[in-house]
Each structure stands twice: as structure tokens, then as C-alpha cells.
Amino acid sequence: MEEVDAFYDFWFDFKSWRIIQGEDEHILEDAEDAYEKRWMHVENERERKRLKKEHMKNISMLRDLAFKRDPRVLAAKAEEARKREEEKQKKAEEKAAREAARRAEEDMGKSQKQIAKEEELRAQAAAANEKAAEAKRRLSRNN
Fold it and tell me: Tens digit of pLDDT for each residue in 34-52?
């Protein structure tokens, strides 16, 4: 993959050294004076820049098309997507496990609370029984 990255890094940073030459629209020798000659020169340069820009656009389209369809790049992207999906699945499982542990802890807490309530009720019942027994003893002593 390093070789592929180096290849595409070169093409993404590529600056063409090609000099666009061709038929100039304006022939400088046909100029009547220096102003017209200067204007013709500027127009010819403007056209060359436009052609150079078009040339670079074609190179970028080819580079982008090659990058998009390169099987090595596609395989690397698929591997990254698979790793992200595994990571997401792992996080979801950890979250579910933490949630289950929290619920189990709450259930244990509820059970302990229920046990504590039952013990409290038993203690209250025992206290009530003792009071009733004490009241009976007092009645029997008074009689």
C-alpha cells in the first residue's frame, strides 16, 4: 500500500512542465504599434494559460478515475470499512455488556432492598407480637 500511496501522492501533486505551444491567435508581427503588439501578446498568453488549465484538468480527471477504480485502493478501503464495522460492533457489545451488568446490579439492589423490607416487616411484626404479649401479661397481673 505504501507504493500505491507514493504513486498517487506524486500524481496528486503533479505540476505539468509541458509548455503549450501552438498557433497563436494573434501574430505579433502584424501589429501596427507597440500597444497593439502588447495587447496581442497578453491575449496569446491568456489563451496559453487556458489551454494549460484544460491540460491539467484532463490529467486530474485521469488521475481521479484511476484512483477510484484501482483494485488496490478499493481493497484497502474495504479493509478500513471492515475494521470500522468491527470496532463499532465491539463497542456495541461492550455497551450491551455494561448495560446488562448495570441491570443485574440494580436487580441485586432491588432484591437486597426487598430482603431489607421483609426483615423490617418481620421486625415490626415481632415488635407488635411482643407488645401484645406484654399487654396480655399486664392484664393477667391486674386480674
Answer: 999 999 999 999 998 998 9
Q: Quote the number of domains for the chain.
A: 1
Residue at 129: amino acid letter: N
Write b or e for each residue in 26-40: b if 16 or more Cβ atoms lie within 10 A of its Cβ, otherwise e: beeeeeeeeeeeeeb
Whole-angstrom Cα distance, residue 81 to residue 130?
72
Q: Judge whether residue 137 has pLDDT over 80.
A: yes
| DSSP tag of 29 | G
Asked if the structure places residue 128 within a domain, the reply is no
Residue 71 domain boundaries: 2-106
In a domain, 117, yes or no: no
Mean of per-residue pLDDT scores for the chain: 88
pLDDT score recorded for residue 143: 64
Measured between alpha carbons, how far is 132 from 67 in angstroms, rounded to an integer? 92
113 inside domain? no
Helix (H) or strand (E) holding 110: helix 71-142
**Do the domain assignments include residue 137?**
no
CA distance 25 to 23: 6
